[in-house]
Amino acid sequence: MTLEAIAQTVSRSRRSTADFVADVVRAAILSGQLEAGERIIQEEVASQLGVSRQPVRDALRRLEHEGVVIQSLTRGTVVRAFSLEDIEENYSLRIVLESVAAQRGATTADDALVRQLQRYNDDLKLAASESIASEILTANHNFHRTIWLAAGSPILVQFLDRLWVGFTVTAPLSVPKRMTKSLSEHAGIINAIASHDSVAAEELMRSHIDSARSDYEEGLPMFKRS
Questions:
Q1: Which of 9, 40, 113, 182 is exposed most, by the fewest CB atoms within 10 A?
Q2: Can you give the pLDDT at residue 107?
Q3: What 3-state DSSP class applies to 92?
């Protein structure tokens, strides 16, 4: 499958050209069209998608921030390589830190926080229904980061910002039925936070991330140990 073919499956509505390019390249990476370690040449992407080089540069910077591509001194932009051990370590750390954030957030939650979380989960549902990858990732990130901020610990947020990169946060895009489960799990977390049930909020967040880890590893055989 070429980038042109992938582009036919990606919505362009309500978004910039850079958003569109990022969605296409991300989809090519998640589908295996672009393999780990493979070089991404800006001119070729621009030519295949019929766009100028500037939105391609912007798109690749966005994907670098997400952690799915990296910059090589000798080869330029390349697809980032992850081992199964990388994935497991990232999820293990996120389980610990995000469950703490949920527990703390539940103790101080107000109606404004609950409304904000519900809005982001609604945004996620809408983006999923329209298969808009960039908006799915943004809404999911907004949901989780709102909980981190509610914990009231800048250091905790800094650690999670470092962890929230790469393949571990793209599971809703690449694992069948993961999005439906995520939306339901998010709803449970919202209810626990709204009820100021810190124990349930912690347990549900831990379960949510562990469930995503399990689904992700089962859904992506490229990360299986040999």
A1: 9
A2: 96
A3: helix
Instruction: Tell me how far apart the alpha carbons of residues 31 and 46 are, in angstroms, rounded to a whole number.
Output: 20
| Structure token pair of residue 184 | 């339901």
Closest of 2, 5, 6, 3 to residue 131, by C-alpha = 6
| 118's tokens | 């519900």
Q: Write down the domain spans for the chain.
A: 3-79, 84-223
Domain 3-79's class? mainly alpha
**What does the pLDDT read at residue 226?**
38
Please give the DSSP secondary-structure letter assigned to residue 52. Answer: -
Band of residue 1 on the pLDDT scale cut at 50, 70, 90: low
Confidence (pLDDT) at 27: 82
More confident residue, 89 or 118: 118
Residue 226 CB partners (closer than 8 Å, separation 6+): none
- Is the pLDDT at 20 greater than 50? The verdict is yes
CA pair distance 42, 51, nearest whole angstrom: 10
CA distance 183 to 187: 6
Q: Which residue reads 């957030």 in tokens?
A: 105
